[in-house]
Amino acid sequence: MTLMEYTQITVGRDGPITVITMNRPEKLNAWTPRMAEEQAQAIHEANLDPAVGAMVLTGAGRGFCAGADMADTFQSRIDGVDPGNDTAGGVGGMPVGLDWVALVRNSKPIVCAVNGAAIGIGVTMCLPADQIIASTAAKFGMGFIKMGLVPELASTRFLAARVGFGHASDLFLSGRVIGGAEAFQLGLADRLCEPEELLPTALAVASSYAANADLQLRMTKQLITNNAVESDFHLIQRREQAMLAECWKSPEHKEAVAAFIDKRPPVFRPTV
Questions:
Q1: How many other C-beta atoms are found inside a 10 Å radius of the C-beta of residue 177?
Q2: What does the DSSP 8-state code read for residue 73?
Q3: Is 115 in contact with 138 (CB distance < 8 Å)?
Q4: List of residues 6+ apart from 181 with CB closer than 8 A
Q5: Strands 131-135 vs 191-193: parallel, antiparallel or unpaired
Q6: Nearest 5°: phi and psi at 10?
Q7: How does pLDDT run across 100-127, given as a tens digit for each residue?
Q8: DSSP letter at 65?
Q9: SS3 of 174, please?
Q10: Pairing mode, if any, of strands 139-141 and 177-179?
Q11: Which phi-psi region, left, alpha or beta, contains residue 108 (left: φ > 0; alpha: ψ -120 to 50)?
């Protein structure tokens, strides 16, 4: 991956947690292909850093991500100008070669802290994440139908998995905007917090994941991804057994057993 300067996000650290913040607050962090590439780079770097155990994705200012930037994405495409690095050849409006769903599902745990408006891709970028935590000030909307578009980033599966077929259909077909409390009630958000508690809660949740071993965290995510809609229970168990056998031989398992016997917390990553 060619490293780029961050111009639309900021990246910080809180202990073992990398905090990735979309940083276009004057536009409620409206999404662009460039922003996605910067996010992908930050996730990639966190995945390579053994001191990082999990990530938090959030937005600067009042918004989380109020959808795609109208001028820089939709209007550019209408005018015949690709808004990024060959988004026409990519998936879901992403630059070619960037599979957002695969990136998120194959990464260390990712927690989305939705602080304000999350519309369109502001929602779909979160759906593959491991936890979605909403502020009571958050707003969620699947606005694709309002733009003459259809959903992307496998959201027609992920949203239905989170909220059920009927609620997913309603949110997609109406394009209506719901508050954080309703998102939590429906299951779109996994937790609900007051605004001042949002980031501390997200960091605490991410830290509870980061306390565990990277290998097993990512294996578990892979099993959840592959088995969530698998109907063959023998195949599910074969997949689990193959990874379990690998875990039995791993240094992480050895450390966990030793820590239990020694009555101490296991150490799975370097301290920072």
A1: 16
A2: I
A3: yes
A4: 136, 192
A5: parallel
A6: -125, 155
A7: 999 999 999 999 999 999 999 999 999 9
A8: B
A9: helix
A10: antiparallel
A11: beta
* Domain 9-210 coded CATH 3.40.50.970: no
CA distance 243 to 269: 21
Query: For the chain, how long is the longest CA-to-CA vector?
Result: 66
Helix (H, G, I), strand (E, B) or coil at 154: coil
Reading the block at residue 85, the tokens are 């690095």
Is there a contact between 135 and 114 (Cβ–Cβ < 8 Å)? yes
Measure CA of the first residue to CA of the last residue in the chain; give whole Å: 25
Q: Are 33 and 100 in contact (CB under 8 A)?
A: no
- The C-alpha atoms of residue 53 and residue 107 are separated, in whole angstroms, by 10
Q: Which two tokens stand for residue 35?
A: 């922003």
59 beta partners: 22
What is the per-residue pLDDT across 184-235, written as a single tens digit (0 to 9) for each?
Answer: 999 999 999 999 999 999 999 999 999 999 999 999 999 999 999 999 999 9
d(CA 163, CA 148): 23
Look at the block and give the residue holding tokens 């994705």: 57
HSE value, Cβ hemisphere, 13 Å, CA-based, for 42: 26
DSSP state string for 81-100? --SSSSGGGSSTTPPTT--H
Per DSSP, the three-state class of 138 is coil
* Helix (H) or strand (E) segment spanning residue 219: helix 214-227
**Dihedral angle computed from the Cα positions of residues 10, 208, 196 and 47, in that order, rounded to the nearest 10 degrees:** 10
**Backbone dihedral region of 244: left (phi > 0), alpha (psi from -120 to 50 degrees) or beta?**
alpha
Name the residue type at position 20: I
> The whole model's pTM is what?
0.95
